[in-house]
């Protein structure tokens, strides 16, 4: 089943978020901030590991430039936050604005971007679609569970719902890969993975409080190499 990896990965992330919610009332603001900083370091580590796959600096740089133009034009970040704010209003009505739930939008956006970007999400989805090999996505799910647990304990109820966006994102990639996977060369997969890991690095530095980048607006950059690599290869630049 092409979607098996995406479904299992989404479930693992959601379970981590739900477990984290059980501890939310016992986590002080000071401890919560410290936990987020620790998760920021972990995310940076995962990103660096993905970037070590190699990649062409020119392709990655141009992909980030073109992707940011597209993402900013669509304003993906605002659209995702708008969805989160809508869910927050519904929760406020249902639970009389309980602060214990946390800010849905913040948790949902942060967790969704973490779980959906990076080399493992992209390469794992391609493997699921092309060869029905779900091992990468299932292994990634263990990492997602470990990160979503403390994230939900500090950021609230929006975090477990990243499982939904994760299933949709990886599911679409897996299905697309099953249809056009034979046209994706190793060079394309590498550049896509490295660019995605660069975005994940931005997620990590955001969690550390070093940057304040709207990473969602950069998501299109991860797929620009699909167009750039064949052109660069035809021109003899790769």
Chart the SSEs and their pairings:
Elements: H1 4-22, H2 29-51, H3 57-74, H4 76-95, H5 104-116, H6 119-131, H7 135-155, H8 162-180, H9 186-207, H10 225-234
Structural notes for this entry:
By secondary structure, the protein is mostly helical. Helices cover 75% and strands 0% of the residues. It contains 10 helices and no strands. The protein has helices at residues 4-22, 29-51, 57-74, 76-95, 104-116, 119-131, 135-155, 162-180, 186-207, 225-234. Helix 4 packs across helix 5 (104-116). The longest helix has 23 residues, at 29-51. It is globular and about 60 Å long. The mean pLDDT is 85.
What structural category do the secondary elements indicate?
Answer: mainly alpha
From the N-terminal CA to the C-terminal CA, the straight-line distance is: 35 Å
User: What portion of residues is helical?
Assistant: over 70%
Mean pLDDT level: 85
* Tally of alpha and pi helices: 10
Low-confidence stretches: none
Overall radius of gyration: 18 Å
The major sheet is characterized as:
none
**Which geometry do the CA atoms define?**
globular
> What string gives the helices and strands in order?
HHHHHHHHHH
- Assembly classification: single chain
Strand fraction equals: under 5%
Number of strands: 0
């Amino acid at each position: 089943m092409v979607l098996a990896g995406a479904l299992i990965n989404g479930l693992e992330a959601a379970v981590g978020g739900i477990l984290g919610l059980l501890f939310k009332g016992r986590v002080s603001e000071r401890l919560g901030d410290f936990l987020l900083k620790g998760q920021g370091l972990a995310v940076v580590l995962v990103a660096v590991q993905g970037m070590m796959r190699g990649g062409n600096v020119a392709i990655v740089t141009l992909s980030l430039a073109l992707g940011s133009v597209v993402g900013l034009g669509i304003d993906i970040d605002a659209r995702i936050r708008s969805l989160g704010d809508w869910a927050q209003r519904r929760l406020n009505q249902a639970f009389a604005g309980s602060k214990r739930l946390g800010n849905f939008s913040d948790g949902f956006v942060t967790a969704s971007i973490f779980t959906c970007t990076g080399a493992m999400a992209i390469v794992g989805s391609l493997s699921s679609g092309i060869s029905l090999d779900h091992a990468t996505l299932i292994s990634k799910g263990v990492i997602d569970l470990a990160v979503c647990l403390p994230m939900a304990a500090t950021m609230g109820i929006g975090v477990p719902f990243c499982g939904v966006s994760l299933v949709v994102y990886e599911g679409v990639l897996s299905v697309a890969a099953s249809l056009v996977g034979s046209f994706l060369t190793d060079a394309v997969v590498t550049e896509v993975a490295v660019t995605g890991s660069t975005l994940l690095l931005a997620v990590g530095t955001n969690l550390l409080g070093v940057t304040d980048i709207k990473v969602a607006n950069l998501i299109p950059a991860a797929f620009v190499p699909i167009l750039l690599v064949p052109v660069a290869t035809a021109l003899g630049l790769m």
